[in-house]
Amino acid sequence: MREKLVELVMKVVNLLLVFVKFVMLVLVLLVMSFLLLVVIDFYLLVMTLLLHFLVILLLYFLKLHPLLLLVMMLLFQLSNVYYYEYTEWY
């Protein structure tokens, strides 16, 4: 009985860790996307490449599922659409 309880607790802790890792990735993405809103277009490409590289490294080191990379890139591209649609930098 005690062993089953320990297993259950470990599963819950692992799920919480995965959730925390995902939230960290989303926060990094949001912060970098916000930074993109305050830079000029010349730096947009550099920041985009750095952000993609950073997300790939995070996913690699945190050992998360590769589909999360696709989700992060989609969110980032949506932030780019917002950037070009609602700012007057272009």
UniProtKB/TrEMBL annotation:
<keyword id="KW-0812">Transmembrane</keyword>
<keyword id="KW-1133">Transmembrane helix</keyword>
<feature type="transmembrane region" description="Helical">
    <location>
        <begin position="42"/>
        <end position="62"/>
    </location>
</feature>
<keyword id="KW-0472">Membrane</keyword>
<protein>
    <submittedName>
        <fullName>Uncharacterized protein</fullName>
    </submittedName>
</protein>
<feature type="transmembrane region" description="Helical">
    <location>
        <begin position="12"/>
        <end position="36"/>
    </location>
</feature>
<feature type="transmembrane region" description="Helical">
    <location>
        <begin position="67"/>
        <end position="84"/>
    </location>
</feature>
